[in-house]
Specification:
Distance between the termini: 51 Å
Largest sheet: none
Shape: flat
């Protein structure tokens, strides 16, 4: 089985990390989404993950992936915090 180090350069990084980066870049560039939209979505997602964790249930991987995407998209925009 090949690892990332064994693959030619043009075939590397086609996995989950790359898809997170690409999706974050796409969302960060979308003018229809405000910084508040990113903050609210991330806050809702983190609250849901907290509820799942409190019930000792497994966290769906898609939730973890979307949390990473939203965090990266906010970071790329240089969004400020909405905390009081």
């Amino acid at each position: 089985m090949d690892t990332q180090n064994d693959l030619p350069a043009h075939q590397r990084r086609r996995g989950a990390a790359n898809s997170v980066r690409l999706e974050a870049e796409r969302l960060a560039a979308d003018p229809r989404l405000s910084d508040y939209d990113f903050w609210r979505s991330l806050k809702n997602l983190e609250n849901r993950i907290f509820e799942i964790t409190a019930n000792r249930d497994p966290i769906p991987f898609d939730m973890v992936r979307w949390r990473a995407i939203l965090k990266q998209a906010r970071s790329k925009r240089g969004a400020r915090s909405y905390r009081s």
